[in-house]
Design brief:
InterPro entries: dTDP_dehydrorham_reduct (IPR005913), NAD(P)-bd_dom_sf (IPR036291), RmlD-like-bd (IPR029903). Its cofactor is Mg(2+). The protein is α/β, with parallel strands linked by helices. The strands form four sheets. A six-stranded parallel beta sheet has the order 2-1-3-4-5-10, with helices on both faces. A two-stranded parallel ribbon has the order 6-9. A two-stranded parallel ribbon has the order 7-12. It is globular and about 55 Å long. 47% of the residues are buried. The structure holds NADPH dihydro-nicotinamide-adenine-dinucleotide phosphate (NDP), dtdp-4-keto-L-rhamnose and magnesium ion (MG). The site of dtdp-4-keto-L-rhamnose has 19 residues, from α5 and β7.
Length: 297
Amino acid sequence: MTTRILITGSSGQVGFELKRALALQGELICPPRQAFDLAQPASLAAALDSWQPDIIVNPAAYTAVDRAEDEPALAQAINADAVAVMAQWAAAHHALLLHYSTDYVFDGDKTGAWREDDAAKPQSVYGSSKWQGEQAVRASGCRHFILRTSWVAGIYGQNFLKTMLRLAASRDSLSVVADQFGAPTPASLLADVAANLVQRTRSTQGQPYGTYHVAAQGRTSWHEYASYVIALAREAGWPLQLAAAPQAIPGSAYPQKARRPANSQLDCSKLMQAFDLQLPHWQPAVKQIFDTLDNLK
Ligand SMILES: NC(=O)C1=CN([C@@H]2O[C@H](COP(=O)(O)OP(=O)(O)OC[C@H]3O[C@@H](n4cnc5c(N)ncnc54)[C@H](OP(=O)(O)O)[C@@H]3O)[C@@H](O)[C@H]2O)C=CC1
Ligand SMILES: Cc1cn([C@H]2C[C@H](O)[C@@H](COP(=O)(O)OP(=O)(O)O[C@H]3O[C@@H](C)C(=O)[C@@H](O)[C@H]3O)O2)c(=O)[nH]c1=O
Ligand SMILES: [Mg+2]
């Protein structure tokens, strides 16, 4: 029997890559938002009943971090209540749920990289809604993987990497926060890891389900990340308005509605050991995304 795989949010960065990465793993169901609207959690069970997925992969989320501060109910519906419905359905139907979460569940006050069992203490509505989504998955008792990641970038959709390239093309000056640390993670890597985990659930051995951190290796700041991307664009001959490197500023000089963690570096050794996987360093990972964008130009 063909495995039926539901992918939510397939118009997003990770969802787009999942369509490619999971294409050989089964029959993909990729509903547009109107056909599976996470803002309407009560509508989801009927759709799941009609599709009967064996695997639900859920990269869909309310990801506008600042806007979430003004729309907490919507963020909660999409990032937590809808996730609870999917998890409960998966538990009742013995389906596997693969869900994505974020470094923003942590407060950022740790020295060193965050481990899966470190205490979550979200500082924003987005982070809090994602944490509640995670808890709903665990409470449901369904077979699940929760993949916590950070600073996602890819060729498809919106992200910081593309924003920096756009601003460098049109502005004389650019100031970027230099006291928030983490690691940019390719959307394609997240989809490939998902495909690997799904593939392994087909083996007869017991599966180490649970929560895993997945991010590129090493640590950088938003400022160093922006500087690196802009240097790549300069080297590749992109016409940039920006003459110098971006200016480094403290987070306090870049007021935003939502508070971001100062340190959101994720320790990914649990995933690497459990599945014998290697994860790329953030610089080659970012360069690969840049090169793909450059080729598509
Ligand atoms: N982006 C990042 O930097 C990070 C993301 N994550 C997590 O990774 C996951 C994937 O993120 P990413 O791919 O970047 O997200 P995107 O913002 O690129 O995509 C989000 C997707 O969710 C869909 N969506 C939003 N609202 C609804 C809704 N009401 N009903 C159905 N679908 C909806 C969007 O659809 P539409 O196109 O219609 O808007 C889109 O397809 C998320 O869980 C996110 O929390 C974790 C860490 C960092
Ligand atoms: C555009 C811009 C941003 N910044 C700062 C703001 C912020 O602190 C940092 C990154 O900006 P962003 O808007 O990409 O940040 P943000 O939307 O908070 O990114 C987060 O998204 C969610 C979905 C996640 O889960 C996180 O892992 C993380 O990727 O850079 C500057 O300093 N200068 C600028 O010109
Ligand atoms: Mg953002």
